[in-house]
Structures are given as structure tokens and as C-alpha cells.
Design goal:
Blueprint (H helix, E strand, L loop, with lengths): L7 H14 L1 H8 L3 H11 L4 H38 L1
Helix pairs in contact: 1-2, 1-3, 1-4, 2-3
């Protein structure tokens, strides 16, 4: 996937700027298309820059916890397999 030239915090700031100054002017000012700005508005609706940072941290933590859970489930399956063969 292509990396965006704007961070998510910058995207939120641009969306807030478009709320105040209008979409066409803001899009031209930042060198993006109006369609892109509308997509960002749909994605970041009522979020603030601090909310986006917190969301990113929570997504990373969630991914880490999912990995831990998957490892634990794998260990349980291995232990069950060992117990079945032992008897």
C-alpha cells in the first residue's frame, strides 16, 4: 500500500481547516484533490488530532494482545496433544 505524504494528525488538521474555510480552498491550499478531502472527512469525522494519536496507540496494543492470545492458544493446543499421546 502506498504511504501517504500526510500523517493522520495532519489529515485531521486539514479536515478541521476545511470545516472553517471550505473544501475547494483548503484542497487547493494543501495540494490535494477535493475528493481526497471528502474521503478524509468521512474517515476522521469528529476526531481531533489527540484522538487519532490515542487510537493508533490502542490499535498497537490490541495487536500485541492478539498475538499474546494466539501464542497462549497454541501452547494450550500443544499441551492437549501431548496429554492425548501420553495416555
Amino acid at each position: 500500500m502506498k504511504k501517504s505524504r500526510f500523517s493522520e494528525e495532519q489529515m485531521v488538521r486539514i479536515v478541521r481547516d476545511s470545516d472553517a474555510g471550505g473544501v475547494p480552498a483548503t484542497a487547493k491550499k494543501h495540494g490535494i484533490s477535493e475528493q481526497t478531502l471528502y474521503i478524509w472527512q468521512k474517515k476522521f469525522g469528529a476526531l481531533e488530532a489527540s484522538d487519532v494519536r490515542r487510537l493508533k496507540v490502542l490499535e498497537q496494543e490490541n495487536g500485541r494482545l492478539k498475538k499474546i492470545l494466539a501464542d497462549r492458544d497454541l501452547e494450550l493446543d500443544v499441551m492437549k496433544e501431548i496429554n492425548r499421546k501420553k495416555w
